[in-house]
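Readers outside the structure-tokenisation community will struggle with the description of the input data as it stands. Showing the layout once, in full, would remove most of the difficulty. For illustration, here is how one protein appears when written out as sequence plus structure tokens:
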Amino acid sequence: MATTPTMTIEYFTLACYFGLLILIGGIFARFNRNLSDFTRGGAQCSWWLVGVSSLMAGISAFTFTGNGSAAYDAGPTFLIIYLANILGYAIGAFYLARRYRQSRALTSADVVRARFGPGVEKIYIGVSVLQAPFGAAVQLWSLAVFVHAVFGLPLLPLIVVIGLVTIFYSASGGMWGVMATDVLQGTVLFGVTLLVAALSLHAVGGWAGFFEHWSDPAVAEDFRWIKAEGQFPQNRFTGPWMIVVFIMQLVGQIHLGASSKFLSAKDGREASKAAAFAMGLMALGSVIWFVPPMVARFIYEPLVGAIAIKDPATAAYAVAARELLPKGLMGVMIAAMFSATMSSMDMGMNHLTGIIVRNLVPGLRSRLGWAPLSEQRQVWWCRGITTLLGVLIIGLSLMLAQQSRFILFDAYLFFASIVNFPVFLPLLAGIFIRHLPRWGFLFMMMTAAVPGIVSLAQEHLGGPAWTIQERGGWGLLCFIVALVICLVMARRSPAGYRAREDEFFATINRPVDFAKEVGKDRDAEQASLIGWVICGSGALFLLFLIPGNPFVQRLAIAALATFICGIGGLLVWTARQARARGAAGS
């Protein structure tokens, strides 16, 4: 494909963006003195930093490819996923986030061990080793599909390049680098996607024109909220599908393993504020992210259908952005997609790295008679394992990109229903129910896994394939039966086991005294560093005023640059206020 001047601008944009990520990783590498710093930012992170990072860990290019294809094909039904996310953050804000931080854990595996014991911790580690790389591989695959659809670049080399960039800055900066880049990425992402949503609405005549297109007989049947059975393959988007997917997504948001999102907060109060902030951002995103792919269905359907990939609908958001954004800003759109996916990948790698170095390696070294790792060597182990995990994720993503069984939207839900759901359900029970039998977790997990095992066996023997709602629905029913049995048998647990359960709940309900338990406040330092990087990024956006765009599009570019600089300026101002309060207090 020939390189045009506009394409040159897009490539320059991506190069600058990668440079910023490398810069941030280098700046925050010096923050990592021990395992706590690398895996949870030393529990010194402000609520806004934790909130943005928590949100960015939950979205990726899949939001704009997999979910975008669902919006293009079926209209608003997929919003049930975002509703579950919003409710999950609300539960975090009002109840769970505070308690997860007050567990005083370094990793989510620590939380699982404190609640259920070392046996369940090992099961959780095993599932995490399987689940986290696969989830990140799906995210990487979805990003490569998006970039391929816009630039026409080869899909497989893209996966390798994107993965290597993510490995580089994740391994260098640790959790500090991950969270700092998340704020930059979130600012760029929301600025660009707000602009794409506004331009999409303008293209169809505002909200009035949008709803007029929605009621057009050509799409009205597909865009009903609840679809009829048989309308879509595997009965997707029907009432049962919506219920099961909602429950699966909600459980994934709030179970014990999801505690990692809030372990970096300074204390329980900051963790609750972080969850509330993430909830607000998710609600805003839910409104603006579903508009462009639906507009693509209204006015760009021939262009979407012409995309030469297996499921052209996954490129619907990309097509809308490509047709509507001013010259030069498509590179920014791609950078935003990189942002979303890298934030999911790096958080997944960092989370799993922490579990391996904190919860797996010490036991192995002890059995081999080796001395424990020093704090500095733990950091180097984290960097090495992050690199190895990144290579594994790249390999899995390459395999997914070449398989033909699943479309992108179904791949993640399939894995979630087979592996995640049976494990997450008992982890959810463990945070809301004080007393369970010693064997309760394993019994609930194995019972909930039975439908998934049966479905795979039946398909292997040539039987009909199960739908997501069948597999998830039967799994949920089996879990409820097992939970009732556990509640009846819980009173027979040994007194020592019940005492350990009581100790866990006493700990998570005891507020964190940040001054005594952590001590060093880095609010001003993190706000200042991140704020100036964002301000510099916003200033670079003004360079896009140079290419020949119409006046209205130049205004759009100026508005985007102002938005980004405004966020950066607000952080710099916050840092100065924090320093002033510190000087007054001393």
Summary: The chain has two domains: 5-521, 533-586. The longest helix spans residues 155-203. The chain has a mean pLDDT of 82.
